[in-house]
Design goal:
single chain, eight-stranded parallel beta sheet, five-stranded antiparallel beta sheet
Length: 544
């Protein structure tokens, strides 16, 4: 075991996570260091200078562990190693040190709800058979009906379809069923079992020992199940009574995780992926002895509407205020249609069940709005998450069906295009694909991305990349952008607010230009300004 490492600036920057800029790395698609067409740690390491110049405080890596990739790495086979497609454990340790030397922390992903069906625990459970201690770590069930032929529950998968798969006994006869809220390759763990709790706390220590600054908790409201495995009741489910969502037993788990994090210097943080409509229930995860922050997905799903976005921002700040936790702001991630495409559509909001092939988008309009949205969220109080490629203004790619790998596509019987369109490998340089990748990328890149490469945009002062760089620089430099927040009323189609004493952010979501208030200077704008007005679909930061 290595000496216990300390994250960058540990002890010198208490509360760093409260207003941090965190960049999401989907490692398969970020940068290819060895020329095999798959992104890897060597590729990310070679681009640390790019990330430093962008101005990020931390990198969140989606799962980099050994995995069959049935769900893009969220089917983890071994938490104590690195998938050989991405590198080695030694490379990860070296990367954490190198990033720390640049003042960039590393956050890793942990998936407590399930593991891969290739994980040794599940393989042992299958081999041991019904009634064995090995099966108690999961949710095995004999099935209903005279011969167990009926599915145990009719719960619906997060990826559509049923949530139970039947095993086959050694003699070829039908065996027990096992629960999987996602794909059959992702069996759910039984968090009532002490082995499961102990193992995950040791996983945290394994990575904290290697210097990671935090853990992002995937599907954080799902791991605990009602052991009676009841059917979902008709109508609205009472708070805390859902059989597999937001159960009260989760909080004891995360209090245990917070205690582990508190064993280390340098404020190791817990960040939850918590999709809940109930504001009071959501806030419980952010109490001082549980998670530090949780993702705010509400704003990301809203249409391009001042009314909808203002309500979302107000709601988000109100949810966090009672527990003193900072809000988080994010425009997209590895699951969500990219902003340039989303904001150019007639339906500019987002919902998984509305994704379809062939949905048109006005990319010019979407790009204007994505630029405006980038400045809007960068000015809000709290931490900011940037998904790789959004700083380049990449659109969603509608991939040919034959190259799609995402299980959401297949489990929808091909209706849903899936999430691979926002996971296409980043363009770094050159006039044609593969845009700086050494080999053929694992997903094909569009032929019209030459103007979107990082190299091309670095040379263009008006590019999306330089807009992001300027915004993050001002966010670091201006104390006002860590100060108080107050709404301003500049019209029904305008989102305007003051930060600190003299900094104002104004976003025009309407169809006509709006006059700017009196000010001493323009700090930054998403479009060129002319004549003292703010055009539609744009944001400006002003010094009063």
């Amino acid at each position: 075991m290595p000496d216990i490492a300390r994250p960058a600036d540990a002890g010198e920057d208490a509360g760093w996570w409260r207003d941090a800029v965190i960049y999401q790395v989907y490692i398969r698609s970020f940068a290819d260091g060895n020329g095999d067409g798959t992104g890897d740690l060597a590729g990310v390491r070679a681009r640390l200078g790019y990330l430093k110049e962008l101005g990020v405080d931390a990198l969140w890596f989606t799962p980099w562990y050994p995995s069959p990739l049935a769900d893009g790495g969220y089917d983890v086979q071994d938490y104590r190693d690195i998938d050989p497609r991405f590198g080695t454990l030694a490379e990860a340790e070296e990367f954490i040190r190198d990033a720390g030397d640049l003042g960039i922390r590393v956050i890793i992903d942990v998936v407590p709800n399930h593991i891969s069906d290739q994980h040794e625990w599940f393989q042992q459970a299958l081999a041991a058979g019904p009634g064995s201690p090995e099966r108690e770590r999961f949710w095995f069930h004999p099935g209903r009906g005279a011969n167990g032929e009926e599915i145990p529950t009719s719960w619906v998968s997060s990826f559509q379809g049923q949530t139970w798969t039947r095993t086959v006994n050694e003699d070829g006869t039908p065996g027990e069923w096992y629960l999987h809220l996602f794909t059959p390759e992702q069996p759910d763990l039984n968090w009532n079992h002490p082995d499961v709790r102990r193992e995950h706390e040791e996983i945290l220590r394994f990575w904290f020992d290697r210097g990671v600054a935090g853990v992002r908790i995937d599907s954080a409201a799902l791991p605990v199940k009602d052991p009676a495995l009841p059917e979902l009741p008709a109508g609205r489910v009472a708070a805390g009574e859902h059989p597999h969502l937001d159960r009260d037993g989760l909080h004891d788990i995360y209090r245990g995780w917070r205690a582990v994090a508190n064993e280390y210097d340098g404020e190791r943080v817990l960040v939850g992926e918590v999709w809940l409509d109930d504001a009071e229930r959501f806030a419980r995860y952010l109490r001082s002895d549980e998670m530090h922050t949780a993702f705010n997905f509400d704003l990301m799903t809203q249409p391009w509407s001042a009314t909808a976005m203002r309500a979302s921002i107000t709601r988000t700040l109100a949810e966090h205020e009672p527990v003193g936790a900072p809000a988080t702001w994010v425009l997209s991630n590895h699951d969500i249609t990219r902003p340039v495409t989303r904001y150019g559509r007639a339906d500019s909001g987002f919902a998984f069940d509305r994704k379809r092939f062939g949905t048109p988008s006005d990319l010019a309009r979407g790009t204007r709005r994505a630029r405006a949205a980038a400045l809007l969220v960068a000015a809000l109080p709290g931490s900011l998450y940037i998904y790789q490629g959004d700083e380049l203004g990449l659109p969603e790619v509608e991939l040919p069906r034959e190259v799609i790998q995402d299980p959401m596509h297949f489990r929808s019987d091909g209706v849903d295009p899936g999430r691979d369109g926002c996971r296409v490998p980043l363009p770094w340089s050159g006039d044609a694909a593969p845009y700086g990748w050494g080999g053929t990328p694992w997903l094909p890149q569009p032929e019209d991305w030459a103007g979107l490469t990082a190299d091309a945009q670095a040379a263009d002062p008006a590019s999306m990349l330089n807009l992001y760089r300027d915004a993050l620089r001002l966010r670091r430099e201006r104390d006002d952008l860590r100060g108080d927040f107050a709404w301003l009323d500049l019209g029904a189609d305008v989102l305007a607010f003051r930060r600190g004493e003299t900094t104002v952010s104004i976003t025009n979501l309407g169809a006509v230009a709006v006059p700017l208030p009196a000010h001493t200077s323009v700090l930054l704008s998403s479009v060129p300004l002319d004549g003292g007005t703010l055009p539609p679909d744009s944001t400006v930061w002003l010094e009063l």
